[in-house]
Amino acid sequence: MANKKKNNKSSIFEDSGFSSTIDFVKQEIQELYLSDEVPWVIGYSGGKDSTACLQLTWLALSELPEEKRQKPIYPISTDTLVENPIVSFWVRNSHKTMEKAAKEQGMPFKPQLLIPAIEDTFWVNLIGKGYPAPRHKFRWCTERLKINPSNKFVRDMVRENGEAVLVLGTRIAESSNRSRTMAEHRKNAIRERLVPSASMVNTLIYTPIEDWSNDDVWTFLMRSKNPWGHNNKDLMTMYRGASADGECPLVVDNTTPSCGNSRFGCWVCTMVEKDKSMDAMIQNDQEKEWMAPLLDLRNELDFRSEDDKKRDRSRRDFRRFTGKLNHYTDANGEFQLVPGPYVQDTRAYWLERLLETQQWIRENGPEEVRDIELITLEELEEIRRIWVVDKHEIEDLLPKIYIKIVSEKYPGNPIDDNLIFDDKTLEILKETCNGDELHFELARNLLDIERRYRTLASRKGLFLELEKALERCFYDNVEDARNRAKFKAGIKQTEIKMQKDEPLFEKMAETT
């Protein structure tokens, strides 16, 4: 009763009865499925709502003759590569079970596990490019990790078929924001129960359980056997262990709550103050204590307390990626530079911490996580490329860090020897710069640029690259950069004031 009051919604099963309600939804699904040749895409996160949605669809189609269920249905899950490991294992195993059951039962389901493009993964952006841990004013993760992979898949379906139906387990009872969004969508309803997507062309959205409450979802899952062979009681156990009341939904646009507002999401998520689900899992189950190092690393990435803010700022460059200086005035009226990406030492530190965490779990965790990959080799290779090629960090630190932490030879591909300076040469260069990091960075970058262009048939663009390197490392130190930015801002304010006063000067001149 407490849940019903909280959701301000009674059970849909009270009026018509459980069987009648389920039969009605199944009939609706059958009619929509048979009405055209448009393929269906079902968002499946592995949580209770998407499981109920997929299970209803499976049960509905299983009652059709096999010759009528030829139109493909694609259950898609987006693995951000930083999902809560327990949920990730559950979803991956579910996909395998689902694929096997679909073949055995002659069902049209073709599960697809999506991952972000390599340049969009969490660790490539944070450790490779130096993006600071996500925050409300710089929320770079959701679109890259969640929205882009699912949207690309749906757009490909539309490109091939002209149209696609996206089936989602969203519910009005879940939140007021989602309720308002769905109400707006229903104003544009076509084909009765299908509504056009607000963000994707020629995509129709179908939400078969939109009127269900939390209790309705669990009632259905507990009373109906999972048709592809997973045990729904295990799903409930996972929720109870995490003290969770929600899930990480398939995110297709910015109106859908991100994982930051969900109980089950990315284990690195800093969009929430505390990862309550993982903390609860560790506290409630001794077999899940191996996740404690993950929680420690996530908490170290956070930046919310005053001490964390200071630490976060000290780990970041005073320049932006391009070398540009951005500024603001703090609460005390002081002129401050906006911190940019993580500096080289910090990025190297995060890689060490991540590999240490992975190595500890492999050595101390249960059997099923002994081969866990917190970061893939493909990501390591892209991070190494960014460091050496894009950032001119010709020290090539990544293989050295890998050997130090893992105690094994780095398994990546050899890198072009022309891109790397040996340690002795770099030591001489540092001594020449008298320990000045900015001057060392400038000299290193200029030498690297010149060395690369020397081996090219055309040296076109050399001077432009040299100019960019000079502009980026132009300053003597942070204080010098701040003073120059302040001086430049003062000039700009003067120019703006003069432009505003121009009509007055012109009028004075005319009078004279």
Number of helices: 20
- Strand count: 8
The CATH topology of the domain at 2-270 is what? Rossmann fold
Rg computed from alpha carbons, rounded to a whole number of angstroms = 28 Å
How far apart the termini lie comes to 84 Å
Strand arrangement, major sheet? 3-2-1-4-6-5
Name given to the CATH homologous superfamily of the domain at 2-270:
HUPs
- How would you classify the helix and strand content by structural class? mainly alpha
User: How much helix is in the residues?
Assistant: 40-55%
* CATH classification class of the domain at 2-270: Alpha Beta
Characterization of this structure:
This protein has helices spanning 2-7, 13-16, 18-34, 48-62, 85-105, 122-129, 141-161, 176-187, 214-223, 232-242, 276-284, 292-301, 306-314, 344-364, 377-390, 397-406, 423-432, 437-454, 462-472, 478-511, and strands spanning 40-43, 73-78, 112-114, 164-167, 195-196, 203-206, 327-329, 335-337. The strands form 2 sheets. The protein has a 6-stranded mixed β-sheet, with helices on both faces. The radius of gyration is 28 Å and the shape is globular. Residues 1-8, 244-251 and 254-262 have low confidence and may be disordered. Helix content is 53%, strand content 6%. Among the domains are: 2-270, 3-Layer(aba) Sandwich (Rossmann fold), CATH 3.40.50; 342-420, no CATH class. A hairpin with a 6-residue loop joins β5 and β6 (203-206). By secondary structure, the protein is mainly α. α4 (48-62) crosses α9 (214-223), α14 (344-364) runs parallel beside α16 (397-406) and α18 (437-454) runs antiparallel to α19 (462-472). 32% of the residues are buried. The chain starts with a helix and ends with a helix. It has 20 helices and 8 strands.
